[in-house]
Design a protein that fits this description.
Layout (H helix, E strand, L loop, with lengths): L1 E2 L8 H8 L5 E9 L1 H9 L4 H13 L7 E4 L2 E4 L4 E7 L5 E3 L8 H16 L13 E7 L20 E10 L2 E11 L5 H16 L1
Parallel strand pairs: 5-7, 7-8
Antiparallel strand pairs: 1-4, 2-9, 3-4, 5-6, 8-9
Helix pairs in contact: 3-5
Length: 205
């Protein structure tokens, strides 16, 4: 982790402007072609959720601005960003996970399964580790939506929030919409565009 020198940062003016707004967040909902990722999951007997979340996390970790966080009045850049995903219980409630990112898919899947087991055996909402070096994300496999709004606390937040829709057939392709909510003090549309491009590239592999 490193601390950003705000005074000499090329985003200083942008940071100060957006931090002064009551609502400094912007959101986009982006369609992704998940045809190859879905087929990969079936061919290799792995969870489709795990496959696309891993592809997503690789893209997140490839964009510096998505690794920035506001912490104790500082802007910091984390070395690795993990996934805090909402995971369902058998009673249809859920818990927040903290899934350590790993470049290796099988290791990442093991980390997901470990968190699933912990959540199934607990009524806790929050994970034991609840730090800012993550994204907050959830899957809504019941709904193919075109817009999405995340709840906010009213306090200044900097953790990106993502949501994954139901994947639906569009002719020969399988399309999944993904919403991403970010703090404009740290992230611009350009950076979301970089993420989108890298995520789609990963899904296509």
């Amino acid at each position: 982790m490193k601390i950003i020198d705000i005074e000499n940062w090329n985003r200083k003016a942008h940071y100060n402007h957006f931090c002064g707004l009551k609502d400094p967040y912007f959101a986009l909902t982006i369609p992704f072609n998940v045809t190859k990722a879905y087929q990969f999951s079936k061919d290799n007997n792995v969870s489709f959720f795990a496959k696309y979340l891993h592809d997503c996390m690789k893209a997140i970790n490839a964009v510096d601005n998505l690794k920035y966080r506001i912490e104790n009045n500082n802007v910091v850049q984390y070395d690795v960003i993990n996934a805090s995903a909402t995971l369902m219980r058998s009673d249809n409630t859920y818990g927040f996970s903290f899934i350590d990112f790993a470049e290796d898919l099988q290791t990442f899947i093991k980390n997901i399964e470990s968190e699933k087991q912990r959540i199934q055996q607990s009524n806790d909402l929050y994970p034991p580790k609840n730090t800012l070096d993550c994204i907050h994300c959830s899957a809504l496999p019941w709904v193919h939506y075109s817009g999405h709004k995340e709840p906010v606390s009213g306090m200044l937040e900097s953790v990106p929030k993502l949501s994954f829709s139901k994947a639906v057939k569009n002719q020969s392709e399988l399309i999944m919409n993904v919403s991403i909510n970010v703090n404009h003090a740290l992230v611009d549309g350009y950076h979301v565009g970089l993420f989108s491009e890298k995520f789609q590239q990963n899904l296509n592999k």
